[in-house]
Fold this sequence. Notes:
It is built from six helices and 14 strands. The chain has helices spanning 7-23, 38-43, 78-82, 102-108, 112-119, 194-209, and strands at residues 29-35, 45-46, 48-59, 62-71, 74-75, 92-101, 123-125, 128-143, 146-156, 161-171, 180-188, 213-215, 218-228, 231-240. The strands form three sheets. A seven-stranded antiparallel sheet has the order 1-3-4-6-14-13-12, with helices on one face.
Amino acid sequence: MSDEQSLEEQLLSQEAKRRLSQKLDGSEKIDVDIQTDILQIVQGQADGVSLAGKGLVIQPNIRVQEIQLETDSIAINPLSAIFGQIELNEPVNAIARIVLTTADINRALTSEYTRSLAQNFKLDMDGEIISFDPQHIELFLPGNGRIGLNAKLLIKFPTNTRLLGATVILHPRTNSQPIMLESVTCTEGKGISVELILAFIQKIQELENLPYFKWEDIAFRIIDMQVIDASVILLIEANVKQISESQIEIINNIK
């Protein structure tokens, strides 16, 4: 928080920080900086909001190592703002830098929410709809900016279910290149068909070409992803309709 804040900015930012902290399961550090003044508050305006946090536990098994978020000018409910609660009257644009450690990601991969996402991930293989029941998924970073996944899952075909273990290596999306699949290696089961690999690649391309994902009232897209040491760093653009603490829901398009 800036030392040059006005009194109303300090009070409003401190109360917003307190309210946000109450919604989290835990945090090592969190700062909120609301750029406004009393006249703007009365008019329902603010120049922007900055948020910086470290070690934020959003819910059990969902942790963010670091986050830095900046919004542009916003229209807010003036009465709520006086009490430190930011209620948006109009959608606001934001950009965020999020750092996730491998431990954070692997912990999240064990959550029931992540499991439900995987179960809803379906492939179309020559007209056959295939779904998955994950038994174990673990992320690792093999170096040279790559991401690896060790997965053990049940593949549910229309007529039967098969156990498959596989190791996948890919290059993440950056601002200059799309996701690139480097290798898929079968580690358990009867092997992986070419048709299944092609269906998987097609699904990844479909997801990558979506204009946005959605987390409740936040529509967002990943514009850059980097792998540095033992962390994955995401740069995200977002359009926020309302500030909410509930869990992430990825959907195919904006409703």
